[in-house]
Amino acid sequence: MTDSDVVRLEHVWVSYNGTSALEDINLRVAEHDFLGIIGPNGGGKSTLLKVILGLIQPDKGMVTVLGNPPVKSRCSVGYVPQTSHFSLDFPVSVWDVVLMGRYGRTGLLKRYGRPDKDAAQKALMRVGMLDHAGAQIGDLSGGQQQRAFIARALVGEPRLLLLDEPTASVDSAMQTEFYELLANLKKEMSIIMVSHDIGAVSVFVDKIACLNVQLYYHGSKEITPEILEATYKCPVQLIAHGDIPHRVLREH
Ligand code: ADP
Ligand code: MG
User: Fold this and answer.
1) Residue 115 contacts by C-beta under 8 Å, 6 or more apart in sequence?
2) 21 lines ligand 1 (CB under 6 A)
3) From CA 124, how far away is CA 76, in angstroms rounded?
4) Ligand 1, atom 13: nearest CA belongs to which residue?
5) Ligand that lies nearest to the alpha carbon of residue 40, given by its number in the listed order
6) Domains, the chain, ranges and CATH?
7) What would the pLDDT profile of 23-82 be if each residue is shown by its tens digit?
8) Which of 13, 25, 47, 50 to mutate to test the pocket of ligand 1 (most atoms within 8 A of CB)?
């Protein structure tokens, strides 16, 4: 293993009730990699992120995050789950949501101190949401809520950011802004973003993998039509006339 491996999975297998969700996954993510993982619904994308977080223990295989078992590195990992668990009516401010991201550092019962508040302010500033700190989370647009949840993930000053289907709640007008934010963040941390939406991954990531129980990854941004077809288990033409950026597909 090299020192720059932020994530390393070797021959990782996960099953639920005897059915494989991940088979023999091998993956290495280096510092400042921005990896996009695409694959159909049910392909195991959320499961893979949970393995990296240490929330799911693989049946077989080895996982290290920043050179340690995932649970030990969790403080250095920011996670934006697939769907936020906030009811829109739940009365909680953006500021409180972001501070919750400090739990890993303060522990549940400790009070927030100056460093926590400074970190929250910095995180909100980075996502351009400081002006909304006092707003109720339920009053925000989908894109603004997404920014608040990213701020919550950033407030622990992570070295790795995991984003599960982050564009689902961002309307298309906000997507460019969202990717600009990620482009800035990747200067400071590694990012893994998973999505069923091929277009969402598009030109912004540096590397692309395809996941459908098995992972197809060659450490580059190149996906062949064969790999896409194997991942989505349907003729690639069906997918390819959509909004796949052409530079993702290798000429052949
Ligand atoms: P994706 O995020 O790509 O949609 P998931 O990782 O959520 O895929 O799920 C992969 C497979 O594992 C699916 O078939 C799903 O039904 C199954 N699965 C996920 N979580 C559980 C669970 N907690 N219990 C049983 N099956 C699960
Ligand atoms: Mg998922």
Assistant:
1) none
2) yes
3) 18
4) 42
5) 1
6) 5-83+157-248 (3.40.50.300)
7) 999 999 999 999 999 998 999 999 999 999 999 999 999 999 999 999 999 999 999 988
8) 47
